[in-house]
Amino acid sequence: MSINICTLTSTTSFLTNSTPPFFSKNHQSSFNSSSSSSPPSLSIFNSFTNTNTKIITILRRRNHLKPMSSSFELYNDDFKPFQLNDLHDFQKIASSEGYISICGFGSLLSEKSAMSTFPNLINFRVARLKGFRRVFAHVAPIFFERGIAKPETKEISSLSVEPCKEEELIVTVFEIRESEVPSFMDRELEFRFLAVMPETLEGKAFTNPAVLCSRYSDEEFFNIRCKGSKEIYYQHYGRYNIDNIWRDDILPCRLYLRHCVLAAKNLGEVAYNNFLDHTYLGNRETTIRQYLMTTGSGVMEEEPPESLKTRYGG
Question: 209: closest CA among 94, 46, 302?
Fold first, then answer.
C-alpha cells in the first residue's frame, strides 16, 4: 500500500507553518556529536549557550510520581509541532520541576535501552503520537563502529521519523532533567529536534510537549552542524565512506531492526503491530511486516554477538 502522499517536502512547510511566536526565523541549528573522535569545537553545549500505557502504563522508578506540571503556555487542542534549535527552546517546554519529556520510537522503545542511555530517567510509559511515521532512511555511524553494518548489502540504516498526516505511532515517553539536554543533543547529532504533543492510548493529550528526533537533511547537517567543514564531516561520517546520511535506497541494520521489533513486542500487542505496520523502508511503501516476510526473512532468528546481547536484546 502506497502512502507517498506524505512527501518529504512536507517537512519544510510543516515546520514553517508551526513556528511559535518565540521562534525566530533566523535561528539555525548547530548540533554536535558525543563521539570521542569528535573535535572539541563540536560541543553543542558551548554552541548553544553562545546563542540565545502487554500495553499498560510503565512507570520508571515506580514511585508514584505526581503528574508533571507545565510551564509551557503555547499549546492547545490545535498544537502544532515546532523545531527546537537551542537550549533556550528546550527550556520553554520543560515542566516546572525542571524535566524534559523525550519520545522513543526505535531502540528507545526498550526500557532497558533507555535506561542505558539515560540512567536517571523517570516515568517511562507508552503513548500515541499522531501525524508521524517511522522510516529506515538514514545511515548510522554507530553500526560501523560496532561492526554490525553490512555496507555490501546496504543493511546500514537506522530509524527516523517524519511528518505524515495519515499516520500515527505508538511510542514511549520518559523524562530527563534539563541538565541532561546538552548530552542528549550531542548524541543525536544527525536529527532535527521537534516539540510534539503525545497522547495517552485513550487519546488524552499530555501535559507537556515532548522532544522527537525527526528527519534532517544532508545539506543542513553539513552546512550547520559541520559548519561547512569537510574535516568535521569526516570525523562523523566520512571516515566510514558515508557520502550521504539521508538515503532512500538503504535497508535496516539487521541487529538493530531485530532489537526494535523485540522492544515493541515487549510493550504489548498494540505497540508490536503498530511497529510492524507503521514502519517503512526508504521507499515509504514496504512495511516492516512485509519486509520480514520477504527480503528480511531470517532477521528475527539472528542473535547478536555476546558483547552486544544486552544492548541489542530488545
Answer: 94
